[in-house]
Specification:
Blueprint lengths: L5 H7 L7 E2 H10 L4 H8 L5 E2 L2 H10 L1
Helix pairs in contact: 2-3
Length: 63
């Protein structure tokens, strides 16, 4: 699985209230129409709590 497109990550994270957990990120990404590969990437993150979108993006692009 390659690195996701940063714009797709931002779209997937739209309307999330922070702080949040990984389950909520996955749920919102699905609601925002993220493709299965990106949803799977969120599901596979090692971190379970995120304080903001930058926190999620760091976890995505460092994994």
């Amino acid at each position: 699985m390659g690195k996701p497109n940063p714009i797709d990550v931002q779209k997937a994270l739209k309307d999330i209230n922070y702080p949040t957990d990984k389950k909520s990120v996955v749920k919102q990404a699905k609601k925002n129409g993220a493709d299965k590969e990106l949803v799977d990437k969120f599901s596979d993150l090692k971190k379970d709590r995120f304080d903001g979108p930058d926190d999620v993006e760091k976890a995505i692009f460092r994994s």
